Amino acid sequence: MKSPLVFVIAAMVTCIVAQDPYYVWPDVFNDEERDAFYYGQFPDDFKWSTATSSYQIEGAWDVEDKGESVWDTFAHEGTHVANGDTGDVACDSYNLYATDVQLIKNMGLSYYRFSLSWPRILPNGRPDSASADGLRYYNALINELLDNDINPQVTLYHWDLPQALEDEGGFLSDDFPQWFNDYATYCFEQFGDRVKFWITFNEPWIIAVLGYGDGVFAPGLNGIGDKVYNVSHNLILGHAMAYRTYDSTYRASQEGLIGITLNSDNFYPFNPKVQLDVEGTERIRQFQVGWFAHAIFKNGDYPEVMKTRVAEKSEQQGYFKSRLPEFTEEEKLFIVGTSDFFGLNTYTSSAIIGTRIEAPRPASWETDLNVIPYKDRTWPTSGSSWLRPVPWGIRNLLNWVSEEYGSDTAIYITENGVSTEDVNDLNDESRTKYYMAYINEVLKAYKIDAVNVKGYVAWTLMDNFEWSDGFSERFGLHYVDFTDPDRPRTPKESTKTYSTIIQENGFFPPEPSSGNSGIANTMLVVISLMFAVNFAN
Ligand code: BGC
C-alpha cells in the first residue's frame, strides 16, 4: 500500500510547480509579488503606437525652402555630437516616408507618433513664410498613414526650433508663446481635418535644462539658473495658448485631443527610512514633472516646493527676486486645465539620495534641487549610460502620476524603449525583454491598480539620430544601415514581440506545452511517473 506521505509530497510539489512564476529578468527582478509576469488584456480601445521625431529621421535639412533649425546649426558646429554626426540625411524619411508607413503597418499598429518640423513648415518660424513643400510633405505623410488605417499622433514641437526664431531670443523671448500659437494654429488649420491627437511639446524639461541650462543640446546655451525657468515659463504659456486656440476654434469641428508630453524616471527614495531621501524624492518629482504638470493639471502655478526653494536660494545668491518667474492670477486661470491627457515618456528608474548642501552655489536647476540620483549596479545595462531597465519602475511612476494628478487623468505612455549595447544587433533579445517586462508592468498598473492608462508608444520605429550621441546609440525596432545611401530598414527580432503583444492586446497565458509551463509540464510528468511507480509497488 502506498504511504499517504507520498501523496502529500506529490501534491505539494504539483502545487509549487503550478504556481511557478515567470520572470522576464529572473536573475535581477524576481520578487514574486512585484515582478511575476501577469497575464491579461488592455481595454479594447487601447492605442498601440510607435514614435519618431522630425530631426531624428527626416534628413533633407536644406531641401527646397526649408529653414534651418537649432539642431541643424548645433550639429553643423561639429563639436557637440558624437563622431561629428548630423541629421542632414538621417533615415531619409523625407523621401522614404511611404516605406516607414509599411513598417508600421507590418507591425499591426493603428497609430504613429511623429513630429512636425517647424522650420520645414514655416521656414522663418512665422506663417508669412509658409512653405508649399513643407505642406506637401506632411500632407503626403498623413494621407499615406490614413490610407493604411494608421492614425497620426502629431507632436508640434520635438526640439527643432527655427533658427530664425532662436536668433530673436527663442524660448527666452516674451514673444515665444505667440510664435508657438501662430505655428500651432497654422497646423490645426492645415492638418486638423485628419489629425485627431496633438501633442504640443515633447519633454519641456529637456528643452529647458539640456538646451538652455547645461547646453548639451541645441541651442547649446549655458544658462545659469534663471534662463531655464524663463524658458519653461514661456513654454507653459505657449502650450496653454495653443490648447485654448484648439479648444475655442477647432475642437468642435475637428474633434481631436490635445495635450503635453513630460518625461521622468521613476524616482524613489534610496533609503525609505531616511527623511532626506524621502523629501529629496518628492522634490525631484516636483522639480521635474511638477514644474510643468502642477500648473497645467492642478492650479495654474508652480509647485510650492519649487517656489519656496528657488526663492530661498535666489536670496542667498544675492538676486533681488526669485529666479523662478511668477504667473499672474489671470495667467493661472488661463493655464490650468489645458491638457486633455498626460503624455508620459519614461525609460528607467533612479534611487534618490537627498542632500543638505544649502550654501549658495552657482545657480542651476540641479543646485536648486539638491539630490543625487543613483542607479543600482545590479540593474541590467543598455546601450545608453543613463538607461538601466527597471520594469517595475514604470508601474510605480504611473501610480504616482495617477495619485498626484487625479485618477481620472487619461495617461498615455508616449515613449518607452531601450538602446542595445551592440548597435548592429538584429537579434535584440534585450529589447524584446524590455518591451515584454515594461508593457507587462503597464498592464498591472491598468488591471490591478486601476490607473487610467489609454495607450502605449514604443520608442522608436527605427534606428535614428540620437541627439548628442548621433548614430552611436540605437533604439530602433528596425535596423537602419546608415552607410548605405538607400538607408535600408530591416526588422529586428523585437518587432515580432511587439506585434504579438499588439495582436493579443496584452498577454495571453502561454500554451501548456511551451516556455515556462513546458518546464512545469515536464515536472508533472515526473511526478505522475513517481505515482505510477509507487502504485506498481
Ligand atoms: C526623446 C527622444 C530620444 C529618446 C531616447 C526621449 O527623451 O524624446 O527623442 O531619442 O528619449 O533618448
Protein described:
- The protein is 45% helix and 13% strand.
- The protein is an alpha/beta fold.
- It has a domain at 265-339 and 349-385.
- Strands 2-3-4-5-6-8-11-12 form an 8-stranded parallel barrel, surrounded by 6 helices.
- Helix 17 links the parallel strand 11 and strand 12 (453-459).
- Helix 5 (93-106) runs parallel beside helix 7 (132-147) and helix 17 (429-447) runs parallel beside helix 18.
- The chain starts with a helix and ends with a helix.
- It binds beta-D-glucopyranose.
- Residues 53, 56, 202-203, 206, 263, 345, 415, 459, 466, 475 line the site of beta-D-glucopyranose.
- Beta-D-glucopyranose is lined by residues 53, 56, 202-203, 206, 263, 345, 415, 459, 466, 475.
- Keywords: Glycoprotein, Glycosidase, Hydrolase, Signal.
- It is an enzyme of class 3 (hydrolase).
- It comes from Stichopus japonicus (Sea cucumber).
Bound molecules: beta-D-glucopyranose
User: Tell me, what's the shape?
Assistant: globular
Major beta sheet, strand line-up: 2-3-4-5-6-8-11-12
Low-confidence stretches: 1-18, 514-537
Overall mean pLDDT stands at 93
Assign a percent range to the helix content.
40-55%
| Number of E-type strands | 15
Rg estimate, integer Å: 25 Å
Determine the structural class based on helices, strands and strand pairing: alpha/beta
Alpha-carbon distance between the termini? 8 Å
Number of helices: 19
Largest sheet: 8 strands, parallel, barrel
- Binned strand content: 5-15%
